Amino acid sequence: MPGPLTIILIIVGVLLLIFVSWYISTVNSFNRMLIKIDESESSIDIALTKRFDLLSKMFQATKGYMKHESETLQKVIAMRQPAHGAPMEQKQEFADQVSRGLQAINVVVEQYPDLKASTNVAKLQDATVEVEENLQASRRVYNSNVSIYNQKVVVFPSSIIANMKHFEKRSFFEAEAAKREDVKFDF
């Protein structure tokens, strides 16, 4: 029959094993979440790149009609895509710039019936709609992953490990200010 000291050592050993298992499990969970966030951020980068490429192609298709639209032209040419590891705020600003560029080009397309009737421009506009939908889906996945991660960072007891290992909350990808406003219909 084991003595009281042996029983105490077994209990301490079991508790220590439980704590170490929980610690490793929680750290691995944080690391898996960070990988999911990075994957979803990469999806946003891919969608932004495709969107920018489409904007460039739309610009080329409408270039002849845009000679007097020099401000729009200069803004489109000046856009530079942020690097893959750039902060989310920088990617958000790029997304907003591309949105404004697409809106400006669409206004030009609407002003010129010949251009609007062009099958190339129509195909590009359809492709733009598809890219926008993919970008929105990528943003939703990213924000969902960030939400789950941020919750784990702040909720006890996982917040203890988050603080020890310096896991910090991540930024959400937010809608641009113009898209948050109420839509006005003028008839």
From TrEMBL:
Q: Which Pfam families match?
A: LemA
Membrane topology recorded in Swiss-Prot or TrEMBL: Single-pass membrane protein
The positions making up the signal sequence are: none
Which compartment or compartments is the protein found in? Membrane
The primary location reported for this protein is membrane
Provide a GO CC annotation, any one: membrane
Q: Which Gene3D superfamilies match?
A: LemA-like domain (1.20.1440.20)
Keyword check for Acetylation, yes or no: no
Q: Which UniProt keywords apply?
A: Membrane, Transmembrane, Transmembrane helix
Presence of keyword Chloroplast: no
Instruction: Return the similarity comment.
Output: Belongs to the LemA family.
Q: PANTHER family attached here?
A: PROTEIN LEMA (PTHR34478)
Protein name in the entry = LemA protein
Q: What is the lineage of its organism?
A: Bacteria, Bacillati, Mycoplasmatota, Mollicutes, Acholeplasmatales
